[in-house]
Amino acid sequence: MREHPILKKLRLLTADHPCSRMMVSCDQAQLMANLVKLIKAKKVIEIGVFTGYNTLNMALVLPDNGRVIACDINEDYVKIGKPLWKEAGVDHKIDLRIKPAIQTLDELLASGEAETFDFAFIDADKESCNEYYEKCLRLIKKGGIIAIDNVLWSGRVLKPRKDDLATQSIHHLNEKLLRDARVNISMLPMGDGVTLAFKL
Ligand SMILES: C[S@@+](CC[C@H](N)C(=O)[O-])C[C@H]1O[C@@H](n2cnc3c(N)ncnc32)[C@H](O)[C@@H]1O
């Protein structure tokens, strides 16, 4: 896998964390970087930063005036990666918002930023994935892409238990995307499954 040396450093640093499984896979990150470059993205949203591996990954390929709105609620996780954003010289492209992501998305919409984003990556609490999708769909331009992580959820989406709200939410969003005429979709069996939704 091609990987920028500071991304590798952050991946190895995150590997020692007890929640390291939350980090996006290397191949998924590479695909996202390629998509961001392909569509010449300037404005990107990441919902769920963790230690900031994919935040850094996207910031590295954005133009110098590009911007990642990075949403998380846990500053302790983000603190791990932040010094490496600086070391890579891309921290000026990252606008970190520590608060519930729904609030950040609502603020972006309220400040007139609807249809101004090129790419969004949804990778936070699964119970809210439908709300994240709907708000991101309003925020991105036509031709923009929304990537949704964990759409296979280790296979649990095939038979969601009634008391498992996270799995039910992902399952419902998968079903909805299948019929959603506002987007074209590709569901990729990569990592824990990632769906790409291309806004029409
Ligand atoms: C799977 S991790 C994100 C991994 C990250 N995208 C990466 O590339 O490594 C999920 C993150 O979502 C964050 N999160 C959970 N609930 C949230 C919420 N309501 N708003 C924003 N972030 C949230 C968690 O703190 C955690 O850091």
Automatic annotation (TrEMBL):
It holds the Pfam family Methyltransf_3. One of its GO terms (biological process) is methylation. GO terms for molecular function: O-methyltransferase activity; S-adenosylmethionine-dependent methyltransferase activity. Keywords: Methyltransferase, S-adenosyl-L-methionine, Transferase. Gene3D superfamilies: Vaccinia Virus protein VP39 (3.40.50.150). CDD domains: AdoMet_MTases. Belongs to the class I-like SAM-binding methyltransferase superfamily. Cation-dependent O-methyltransferase family. This is Catechol-O-methyltransferase domain containing 1.
